[in-house]
Structures are given as structure tokens and as C-alpha cells.
């Protein structure tokens, strides 16, 4: 098996992380007062740090659990013996509740400051 099979997953993960950090910064800059702009970048990096710690814990836990019973780990150093497909299915399964949580939070938050200004501007035109 070739390492190139992992290229699409790595590309999607990188693209998702890039889109996330940009959107998160845009959100913070649009919602926070100007005096808190440095805190907004710190919050982005703090969130990324926490996510990396959780990802590391998750990878170690899956590695240990998949080795039980003397079997080869899903995250083996030998790509031909490991089951990276199972690992990515676990990550995809964990992403579904995360997406549902995001949708609930975004619905509960409502329109942002910029959206409220736009709505007020359009109402005045009518």
C-alpha cells in the first residue's frame, strides 16, 4: 500500500484547519471590541492547542485499544499492517456530533453584529 492513500485525508484536514482559523478570527474581530483584538488571536491559538492535545490523547487511546488481544494496532508504523481506514472512520464518526453541536450553537447565537447592521440597512431601504 502506498502512503499516497493518506494524501486526500491530510489535504482535507489541512484545508479544514485553515478555513477554521480564518473563520474564527473573522468572528472574533467582528464581535469583539477593538481593544480585545489581541485576545481574539490568543483565543484562536488556545483553541488550536486544546484541539491538538485532544487529538493526541485520542490517537494514543485508539492505538492502545486497537492493540488489545495482541492484534496489530490500527495506527501501525507499517502501513500495510495497520488499519488507517478504521481510524479515519472513528474520526468521521466523532465529527458528526461535533457538527450537530456547531449547528445548535450557531442557531442559538443568532445573527452577529454585522448581520444586524445589514438587516437594519435593508429595512430602511424598504
TrEMBL record:
Signal peptide: 1-17
Entry membrane topology: Multi-pass membrane protein
Pfam families in UniProt: PTR2
Keywords (A to Z) from UniProt: Membrane, Signal, Transmembrane, Transmembrane helix
Gene3D superfamilies the record matches: MFS general substrate transporter like domains
SUPFAM superfamilies: MFS general substrate transporter (SSF103473)
InterPro entries from the UniProt entry: MFS_trans_sf, POT_fam
Entry's localization field: Membrane
Family, as annotated: Belongs to the major facilitator superfamily. Proton-dependent oligopeptide transporter (POT/PTR) (TC 2.A.17) family. Belongs to the major facilitator superfamily. Phosphate:H(+) symporter (TC 2.A.1.9) family.
Stated name of the protein: Protein NRT1/ PTR FAMILY 1.2-like
Taxonomic lineage from the root: Eukaryota, Viridiplantae, Streptophyta, Embryophyta, Tracheophyta
Amino acid at each position: 500500500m502506498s502512503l499516497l492513500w493518506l494524501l486526500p485525508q491530510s489535504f482535507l484536514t489541512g484545508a479544514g484547519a485553515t478555513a477554521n482559523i480564518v473563520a474564527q478570527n473573522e468572528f472574533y474581530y467582528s464581535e469583539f471590541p477593538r481593544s480585545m483584538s489581541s485576545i481574539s488571536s490568543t483565543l484562536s491559538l488556545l483553541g488550536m492547542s486544546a484541539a491538538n492535545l485532544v487529538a493526541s490523547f485520542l490517537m494514543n487511546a485508539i492505538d492502545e485499544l486497537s492493540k488489545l488481544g495482541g492484534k496489530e494496532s490500527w495506527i501501525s508504523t507499517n502501513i500495510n499492517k495497520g488499519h488507517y481506514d478504521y481510524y479515519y472512520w472513528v474520526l468521521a464518526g466523532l465529527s458528526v456530533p461535533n457538527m450537530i453541536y456547531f449547528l445548535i450553537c450557531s442557531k442559538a447565537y443568532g445573527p452577529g453584529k454585522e448581520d444586524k447592521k445589514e438587516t437594519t440597512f435593508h429595512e430602511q431601504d424598504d
